[in-house]
Structure formats: C-alpha cells, structure tokens
Amino acid sequence: MKIKMPVIMVNVKAYSESMGDKDIALARACEEVKEELGVSIAYAPQMVDLALVVREVNIPVLAQHAEAFLPGSKTGYTVLEAVNEAGASGTLINHSEHRLELADIDFLVSEARKLDLYTVVCTNNIPVSMAAAELSPNCIAIEPPDLIGSGIPVSKAEPEIVKMSVEAVKDINKDIAVLCGAGISTGKDVKAALELGAEGVLLASGVVKAENPKEVLLDLANGT
Ligand code: G3P
C-alpha cells in the first residue's frame, strides 16, 4: 500500500494503551479519520499485533522495527521477510528508542527495497539525517530525542532542525520524503511542521495517551 504525502504517521510504541484490542481500536480510529477527511494516515502497531492490524484496517501499516538479518536460525527477532509476509507496507528503522548501526540501516534499506517495503529511517540530528539520505530510504523522520514524549512540539521548539534537515536531505536526494516528530499533538503542530518543509509527522503519545484518540486524529488531520 502506497504512503501519500502529507502523512500523519502514528507509532504506538509499547504503551499499555496500545496493546491487543486497543491497538486495533487505535488503528480503526486512524482508518475512520482517513476515510472521513481523505487524509493520509499510516500506522505502526505493536510488533506482536502487526499481522492482525494489517488484516483489520485499510491503511498502510508499518513495523516499528526489523532486525538486520536474513531469515534463519535466530530466536525472538523480526526480519524484513516476516514483516512482508505479515502484509505490512514497510518499516520504521533506527527509531531513537531502538537504535542501529549505520551498516545495519544500510542493510535494512537495501533489503527492504528488494521486497518493495517502504522505509522510514528515524534520525536525531542533521548529520545523521544526511548520512541516512545517502542510503536512499523512502522517508527520513527527524526526531530530536529530548522532545520525544515531552508534549513540546519539535516544530515549535526546534524549527531550525526541521527546516535544515529538509534542506540537507533534499540536497542529497530530492525523492526522499522528510517527516518530523517529537511532541506533536495538535493540528497546529502539523501545520507548523508542513510550513517548515516537512511532508508529514511521526507521532505517538499525543494520540496513544489521549482520552479521545479519534478527536486528536481529526485535529491533526485538519493541520495537513
Ligand atoms: O515515533 C514517534 C516518536 O518518537 C515521537 O513520540 O510521543 O513525542 O509523539 P511522541
């Protein structure tokens, strides 16, 4: 399934508010908002729910992480081929909370390309965004780690890092979509991100921990 820009990408992490049936309910809320407002929303469920969520909703579903291994004798890991078999559209790579070495990111981006899986490489600053851009993923999501889960939107607290990351990535490869994330929770934050040149947002707590996630998603969608 293609991911259209501008996109609202929801990563539900390992929160207790996003497990099992709650994961499906959040994914359905994303699907409803996509259908009601015609916005692009992608969803990264908890890894254990990946195949289940793919079957339940008609929006792009991403893995939160994949290991830089080929399938084989490895216990307790998720490889890209399994992500593909689960029917996911792609995967996050190198999230701040699940860092990888550069060679592993390179492996994952190249292998994902062979499988036609969409790659979102998360980065923490401009030099790392530039290094990631050299690997030609489909998308780079810049997220200053200090602002993750803070409720302080990166688009307001560190507009320069967003603007400069977009410019630096596009200078290397204009086909890479650039998102920003950390502390995003309102339509106003999304609008500010898009005004800085980002093509969407990657967010978690603002939706997952909301009393009414659908209401938050509707507000976010209005910012696109
Ligand atoms: O992957 C999304 C992310 O790390 C941002 O988290 O909770 O600040 O939206 P949050």
Percent helix: 40-55%
Named CATH architecture = Alpha-Beta Barrel
Distance between the termini: 20 Å
Count of β-strands: 8
Uncertain segments:
none
Give, in spatial order, the strands making up the sheet with the most strands.
2-1-8-7-6-5-4-3
Shape: globular
Determine the CATH superfamily. Aldolase class I
Whole-number tally of structural domains: 1
In sequence order, what are the helices and strands, one letter per element?
A: EHEHEHEHEHEHHEHEHH
Largest sheet: 8 strands, parallel
Class based on secondary structure composition and strand pairing: alpha/beta
CATH level 1 name: Alpha Beta
Radius of gyration based on Cα positions: 16 Å
Tell me what portion of residues adopts beta-strand conformation: 15-25%
Ligand list: SN-glycerol-3-phosphate
Number of helices: 10
Determine the mean pLDDT. Answer: 97
- The CATH topology label is TIM Barrel
Explain the layout of strands and helices.
Elements: E1 7-11, H1 21-37, E2 40-44, H2 50-56, E3 62-63, H3 80-85, E4 90-93, H4 102-115, E5 118-123, H5 126-133, E6 139-142, H6 154-157, H7 159-172, E7 177-181, H8 187-195, E8 200-203, H9 205-208, H10 213-222
Parallel strand pairs: 1-2, 1-8, 3-4, 4-5, 5-6, 6-7, 7-8
The structure holds SN-glycerol-3-phosphate.
Notes on the structure:
The structure is a single chain. The protein has 224 residues and is of the alpha/beta class. It has one domain (7-221): Aldolase class I (TIM Barrel). Helix content is 42%, strand content 16%. The chain has 10 helices and 8 strands. It has helices at residues 21-37, 50-56, 80-85, 102-115, 126-133, 154-157, 159-172, 187-195, 205-208, 213-222, and strands at 7-11, 40-44, 62-63, 90-93, 118-123, 139-142, 177-181, 200-203. It has an 8-stranded parallel sheet. SN-glycerol-3-phosphate (G3P) binds next to strand 8 and helix 9.
